Automatic annotation (TrEMBL):
Gene source species: Syntrophus aciditrophicus (strain SB)
Name by which UniProt lists this protein: Transcriptional regulator with HTH domain
Pfam assignment, any one: MqsA_antitoxin
Stored NCBIfam families: CxxCG_CxxCG_HTH, YgiT_finger
Highest rank taxon of the organism: Bacteria
Ranges of residues in domain HTH cro/C1-type: 83-139
Gene3D superfamilies tied to this protein: 3.10.20.860, lambda repressor-like DNA-binding domains (1.10.260.40)
InterPro entries the UniProt entry points to: Cro/C1-type_HTH, Lambda_DNA-bd_dom_sf, MqsA, MqsA/HigA-2, Znf_MqsA-type
One annotated GO molecular function: DNA binding
Stored CDD domains: HTH_XRE (cd00093)
Length: 182
């Protein structure tokens, strides 16, 4: 009991600084594009001094993932568990899938955990891979060729975004920097 009491340090309100926070557990309602989502066991700390309510950090993290999936459902995008199921069905690791669809290992992990929403284009690609797994071979074959020129393409993309023209661009293989002709 003593140990438990020690853990329950009085928390200061981050708004007014008063040690008058009360832990509350309830069901919180969220709305996205007219659709409602209720999250149970939603923990907040309410300050009796200033009336501010602070969301518990674990609740914030967990509800964030739930709401990202809810948002994807409403938007007609695949949810995290659905993306994971497609990847498992294709027999791929997160890294292998990332190499195929692009975006890096962290993106795939974040799509699956619900931290990040995939784009509509990425969503379509995943659906096509799910419906026609044989298309995987086409992408994998191309991936081998694309890898070689990926660095140069990246530089070109970056320059293009900044509005550079690269008609007369010469790339130095040593510095990976582009020089520009007149
Ligand atoms: Zn307060």
């Amino acid at each position: 009991m003593k140990g438990a009491m020690n853990k329950m340090k009085a928390q200061k309100c981050s708004i007014c600084g008063a040690e008058s926070l009360t832990r509350k557990v309830g069901t919180e309602s969220f709305e996205y594009k007219g659709k409602k989502k209720e999250i149970p066991n939603y923990v907040t700390y309410e300050c009796s001094e200033c009336g501010e309510a602070i969301v518990d950090s674990a609740t914030l993290k967990e509800s964030g993932k739930i709401l990202k999936d809810f948002q994807r459902e409403v938007d007609g995008l695949l949810t995290g568990p659905q993306i994971k199921a497609i990847r498992i069905k294709l027999g791929l690791t997160q890294e292998q899938l990332a190499n195929i669809i692009g975006g890096g290992l962290k993106s795939v992990a974040r799509y699956e955990s619900g931290q990040v929403c995939q784009s509509k284009g990425m969503d379509n690609l995943l659906r096509i891979l799910d419906a026609y797994p044989q298309t995987l071979k086409i992408i994998q074959r191309r991936e081998q060729t694309v890898k070689l020129s990926a660095k140069v393409t990246y530089i070109e993309d970056a320059r293009a975004r900044k509005g550079y023209r690269f008609k007369d661009t010469i790339y130095s293989p040593d510095t990976k920097e582009a020089t520009y002709g007149s």
